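chain below, 529 aa
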Amino acid sequence: MSANAPLRDTEPVLIDGQWRAAMATGSFRAIDPATGVERPQQWPVSGWSDVDAALDAAVAAASALASLPGARIADFLERYADRLAARGDDLVAVAHAESGLAVKPRLADVELPRMLDQLRQAAAAAREGTWRMGMIDSQRNIRSAAFGLGPVVVFPPANFPLAYGAVTGGDFAAAIAAGNPVIAKAHPGHPGVSRIAADEALFAVLETGLPPATVQLVHGISMDDGARLVADGRVGGTGFTGGQEAGKRLYAAAAAAGRVIWVEMGSLNPVVLLPGALAERGAEIAGELTASVTGSAGQFCTKPGFVFLISDEAAATFTTAVAERFEAIGAQVLLGKVGRERLVAALAQLKSAGARVLAGGGVGDGPCSHRPTLLAVPAALLVARPEALLIEAFGNATVLVQCASVGELMQAVTCVPGALAASIYSAKDGRDDATVAQVAASLVARAGRIIENRMPTGLAVTPPMQHGGPWPSAGPPFFSAVGMPWSILRFARRICFDGWSHQRLPECLRDEAPEGRPWRFLDAAWTRG
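prediction:
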């Protein structure tokens, strides 16, 4: 097959409102992680000509979307959510087959509702309009607000086929809410989910009268074309969620060209267990840690990667309890062969650097399975070799950092790089209070979300939620992948209109309140009037 030739025996791509054969350089198949068997559909790896066509169509769509009121964008998001809800059983079935994640409760009861809720929250924000943060100085006739960037590219992760999907997830919803068209690059681990969702998105686009290229979908592209895409001058911004290797490559390519990109990457998510907490309820915390590390086989970006505790009798009892719980679970199915290979490689590096395996540590019988793994390392060794030990083992594994004192614990925690989340457990009777403030200050400097007496997995999709953090967990650290308006503002820029005639101003900056009656900063006071 010649490069960039139509590949008609593969599934199509969605470009400018049309499903068409990809101008492809190759193809791939997804696998069933439970069996390792390839699924029947063949998916294309698009050449640059597909990407180029999608970019041109997205530029035209961005121009049209910029003139539409937020209510029109909201109509699309609501209609799309309704269509996806009607296809919920199909989406869950395909997501299960492509990811190996459990139908219940994970996909049907947790992730599907979260996906629909995100879309509807984005619709409400677009309709109401406070996310624009309009500011008006009527005496000087200076006005500013946030507006869409233009075409947004979305690269999704493997671990959330619905709630983080290329055409269903939070990046998609936020980008659309800001009035941007989206070019979605489906994850190769769940292309079937993206195909169903994009089909429903196209119907919703047509039903609500948005530009046909509001939503476009390609499946595979080369690494070079990915870097070329995020750096292209036609791209307003990019949202990426995934591993650090790919994320840093795209971040560097976009930054070198001066393009906007928001990345959410790997995270160690430190958990600090203070002595009083373990003495008071060590068995309970052992259960919570086990559930957090092994839920969905540990394939959460907020899974605790390193757990810091001070060695004493309660810590020893706790460690034994966790090891026993890990051993009792047995091998779990990971998202795919590549995921298992990366976990095995990370654990091998940890062991070669001095970490000891306390439980698990091996692959299972299935082609994508791995046993829950508990490791331990002395704090002094971690402080001496942070570059070798402070790595992400994405999956059902975690490392206990055994500290001799509070001082050594603080020294070890200080070595942890930027994280999405961090937890601190303390005694309910107050015996740890003298240490809590000291530890909390260190964690605040290192994580976007600080949790008290609970593991970092599980986060509510609500406006105050922060899901982002210092580099390398995410960047830029000010914004969030979850919660309005911060998630929308990743894909917007502020524009000032200085001295403009009133009739030529965008609706959100005119003197009279816009239709959604958003909060605006009018002459030094926040008001809905």
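The first helix runs from residue 48 to 66. Residues 353 and 385 are 8 Å apart (CA to CA).
thats it, cya
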